[in-house]
Design a protein that fits this description.
about 45% helix, alpha/beta, Rossmann fold, about 130 residues
Amino acid sequence: MPPRRARILVIDDEELVREMLVRFLNLEGYVPIEAENGEQGIQMALRSPPDLVLCDLMMPKVDGFGVLARLRAEPATAGMPFIFITASAEVQDARVAELLGASDYLTKPFNLSDLRTIIAQRLAETGR
């Protein structure tokens, strides 16, 4: 039986960004799951924990910091890799992300090659 493909949850309120990430993840051999806001992303992650989360920072309802804090507070999702993909290049935001336990912080526009490497590294660290 072939190994299970890693499931990656993409949380972003911008449809075009989500679509691009989903296409990229499919081409890379992952199973993408998408949520259009932080609230929906939290529900999806808690219902069926993914192997990794790619999350925007600035979103309506629940922002990326709220998503990360909520997922870190739950045993089933506390240790999963969490990568911010955001337009915010503010040093303060990157620092808050680090303090909350984010695995990485990429600013838009980002390089797909860098994203590929970061995803592979973070999944390898968890044994996926």
